[in-house]
Design brief:
binds calcium ion, alpha/beta, binds alpha-D-ribofuranose, Inosine-uridine Nucleoside N-ribohydrolase, Chain A, two-stranded antiparallel ribbon
Length: 310
């Protein structure tokens, strides 16, 4: 079956890095666009370039938003991903791969016009996607769909707000309110916390005979250690972003339900909260909300993608 054309819009980020190697394997990855989120734009973009180089991908990287739509500074996630955004990964001091442009939004718009059935997989804040919708009102309707990692019925930045939505709630509200008649697949924390980085997974990846396996084990080990240091336990760490790729390419691994999801942008306690309508009598929705995933099967697909890398 033909691979689905995808632009990965991301803020690498450890789990974004896994989403990238996965997308390169199971999608027709036509471009990577970056933005600020986990760490600043310079770092997320350098991480994307380093990964594209290491994976020997012939894929352009376009940098985008340096902050949220409102321009109001928000906390990053460097405590989880390290100052570089990919703690545990060491790229060559000088990368041979360079950024193709600093207009990720323009590239998203142009690619949506040029590539039939293009999907955007968004694994960071939704700033780039929202700006593409604002700059070109016909952008969303040209897409095959959007797959999002974000939101949840609980939070990780606050008790109710998940990082990607909390970083730019206005952008999330624009995207979830776009009503463009395209499928929007949404993997919130309720879903992603079912897919975990464990010591066993790190060891499995470390033992792979290729170059990227041990490289990925290095950064996944650092990610796991940072999450455990923060949660103060031997919890495993959720592998959030690859779930958004799999929701598109491996729907048979998911249980999804149409649900209405909206975003709180003004609450003093609840800003960045996704309000997910799970009342049994409400019908339809603006997203396909991912409820369950076959996590062992999902991890098998992820490990196979890492094993298939150079
Ligand atoms: O809340 C998890 C999300 O925030 C993931 O996309 C992770 O990379 C961070 O961006
Ligand atoms: Ca991310």
């Amino acid at each position: 079956m033909a691979k689905i054309p995808v632009v990965l819009d991301c803020d690498p980020g450890h789990d974004d890095a896994v989403a990238l190697v996965l997308a390169a394997s199971v999608c027709d990855l036509v471009a990577v666009t970056t933005l600020a989120g986990n760490v600043g734009l310079a770092h997320t973009t350098r991480n994307a370039l380093g990964l594209v180089q290491l994976l020997e991908l012939d894929v352009p990287v376009h940098s985008g938003a340096a902050g949220p739509l409102t321009g109001v500074g928000v906390a990053d996630a460097s405590h989880v991903h390290g100052e570089s955004g990919l703690e545990g990964a060491t790229f060559p001091a000088t990368l041979s791969v360079t950024v193709s442009s600093d207009d990720a939004v323009g590239h998203l718009i142009d690619t949506a016009r040029a590539v039939d059935g293009l999907w955007v997989v968004a694994t960071g804040p939704l700033t780039n996607v929202a700006q593409a919708m604002q700059r070109d009102p016909g952008f969303a309707a040209r897409l095959g769909g959007i797959a999002i990692m974000g939101g949840g019925t609980f939070g990780n930045v606050t008790p109710v707000a998940e990082f990607n939505v909390h970083y730019d709630p206005e952008a999330a509200a624009v995207v979830l309110g776009s009503d463009a008649g395209i499928p929007v697949l949404m993997c919130g924390l309720d879903l992603t916390h079912q897919v975990l980085v464990s010591d066993e997974l790190v060891a499995q990846v470390a033992a792979l005979p290729n170059r990227f396996g041990p490289f990925a084990a290095g950064f996944l080990g650092a990610y796991l250690a940072n999450v455990r240091a923060r949660t103060g336990s031997d919890h495993d760490a959720a592998l959030h972003d690859p779930c958004a790729v799999l929701a598109l390419t491996h729907p048979e691994l998911f249980e999804m339900r149409a649900r209405h999801v909206s975003v709180e942008t003004t609450g003093s306690l609840t800003r960045g909260m996704t309000v997910v309508d799970r009342r049994p009598w409400t019908k339809g929705g603006n997203v396909q909300w991912a409820e369950r995933i076959d996590a062992p099967a999902a991890l098998d697909v992820i490990v196979a993608a890492i094993a298939a890398a150079p």
